[in-house]
Predict the structure.
Amino acid sequence: MSLLEKIKKTMGELPEKPVFSFVGAGGKTTCVLKLADELAGLGMKVLVTTSTHIQHPFYLGRTGLLDADTKTIKEAGVPGKVVIAGRKLEQEKVGDIETSKKIAGLLETQLEEVLESYDAVVIEADGAKRYPFKVPAEHEPVIYQITTHILIVESMQAFNRPLSEVCFRLEKAQEILNQADCREKLLTPEIVAKLLEKGYLEKLSGSLSSPKRKIGVIFNQQDSQTFEEKLSVPVIYEKKLKMPEKKEFFLIMLASGFSRRFGGNKLMYSMEKTPMYQILMEKLDWVRQHSEHVAGVCVVSQYEQIQKTAEEYGFLAVDNPDSSQGISASIKKGIRAVHKENPKGECYCFVVADQPHLKQETILRLLEGFQRSEKGIGAVVWNGQIGNPVIFHEKYREELLALDGDTGGKRVLKRHLKDVYLCEAEERTELKDYDYKPEEEAEK
């Protein structure tokens, strides 16, 4: 049963424009994105923001609207799409990227203005500094008036562990338990219930109450019926609400085309004094340096110069004398070469060499988002158009190796649409590949 179905089953049918605020600890952001994706899967226009702070979309494998005006946020609302909107915080340098790991949310007045353009809003309304359990301070949580549902998330990874290890705002827990020092006290179901009732539920049913607002508790990584009689609000159990295990990626650059319509070898075509193929190599090198999950980069080409440059970058260069057989030959040679180097390889990320406007940050977001998706295939998309790069889990290796002629991995992707994660590109041009010289493209 989906998270949305569980919410409806325990808390009743949704109003016309539901606004969910997630508070607590141990899985809030995962909950926010999971519910937002489920709502979007129903064809709804979904807005995600925060009343405090939330992870920067970059680190969530998502695109976001930061410091955008109200008109732009309204226009971004599209059926079946999740839009993350907020405000930039002070910047810091992460590798070559100037960014903050967190963003602030939309102001409540701005959120009220854009609400008319969306079918549902999901808000992260609390912070817990990555602790699995939390007791709120006086000023927490930050609940906007338009909220229709408040969902308190707590991770049961905290069960039977000392409060000092698992509880954010330990001093508030000590006040409620009326003990001067409860650092070594174990978090039992009875203590969980007491801390939730006194910490969150009394406040939410008092100063933060609203006659139309519903309140529930989500226990993350807990499937036993433990709390129904201990709490005064509906309870939801999410056994699988957790981040998936990290996978290793092998980036495979396909650079064997003949460029018949281009009027010359397009991969050697100079764009801003750099050959087209090398623009992609530089970006793959950057991604390799900025992702701990990239196990290697492989370049498949029939051209000696491209192979030589790949080796200079420290990539695995694979000769492809069978390029006349079509793109399937390149795909198969890349997979076999990577598998020979590392038989335990998990995911193949295919990048085409004639896509020079693809941003390195988009490749990294695709990898990070795919990690969290629990899907077996991932791809970059723009306004519903699926493009490259495309990721395949190794479970699809045999299907990829069965391709023939000029048939690429999209054939495998289309067979398994329910297993596909899509990462939205920031600009339309990122998906553009070149069949003709740029000046000829402009004339068309």
